[in-house]
Amino acid sequence: MEIWTAVDIAAKEKQLVVKWIRRCLREVTKAAYELPVDYPTARRDIRVTIKGAGHRSSACAKGVTIDMVPFRKQQTHILEYPAFASDKVIGSRDNVPAEIALAATVAHEISHFVQYRYGPDTRWLQRKYRKPHGEGFQDIYRILRSRVVNSHAESLTT
Ligand SMILES: [Zn+2]
């Protein structure tokens, strides 16, 4: 994991982002999901940028960029892409702990990283990974929301 942090990012903020990235990568690289990569390799592969600039978080085949401003404002909602905002698993949610809102952002961006980096070489993603928020993306994000983010949401209090 190659990590770049803006000068104003605190060590604790960095640790928090890295913790959720690891949880996401550990889950999605389980053998059952048939990605062409194992956890240590995926963890090595990814480039992580952490900012506090108020820009959008983003991702590409090289890695993810996470913006800490919503977390600093203690944002307690997950605002999802309109096409699946009303989905019970991967959709928007209100009144979640700020850490869970951050975790959902991390999971969303890790899903983009996985779709672009490993989609072309993953049998079940090959035909559906290209569209940014399409079926392939949603399938990956569904794994991460249900197995990593939502399952932790219940154990944390607001
Ligand atoms: Zn997105």
Distance between the termini: 30 Å
User: What is the domain tally?
Assistant: 1
Mean pLDDT: 95
Provide a count of the helices.
5
Q: How are the strands of the largest sheet arranged?
A: 1-2-4-3
Structural class: alpha/beta
CATH topology group: Collagenase (Catalytic Domain)
**Percentage of residues in helical conformation:** 40-55%
CATH architecture: 3-Layer(aba) Sandwich
Oligomer: single chain
Low-confidence parts, pLDDT < 50 over ≥5 residues?
A: none
What binds here, in terms of ligands, is: zinc ion
Q: Can you characterise this structure?
A:
This protein has 158 residues and is an alpha/beta fold. The chain has one domain: Collagenase (Catalytic Domain) (3-Layer(aba) Sandwich). Helix content is 44%, strand content 10%. Helix 1 (11-28) crosses helix 4, helix 1 (11-28) packs across helix 5 and helix 4 (98-118) runs antiparallel to helix 5. The longest helix is centred in the C-terminal third of the chain and has 21 residues, at 98-118. The protein starts with a strand and ends in a 5-residue tail after the last helix. The relative contact order is 0.16. The mean pLDDT is 95. The site of zinc ion (ZN) has 3 residues, from helix 4.
What is the topological layout?
Layout: E1 2-5, H1 11-28, H2 39-45, E2 47-51, E3 58-59, E4 63-67, H3 69-72, H4 98-118, H5 135-153
Parallel strand pairs: 1-2, 2-4
Antiparallel strand pairs: 3-4
The chain binds zinc ion (ZN).
Record keyword descriptors for this entry.
158 residues; alpha/beta; binds zinc ion; Collagenase (Catalytic Domain); globular
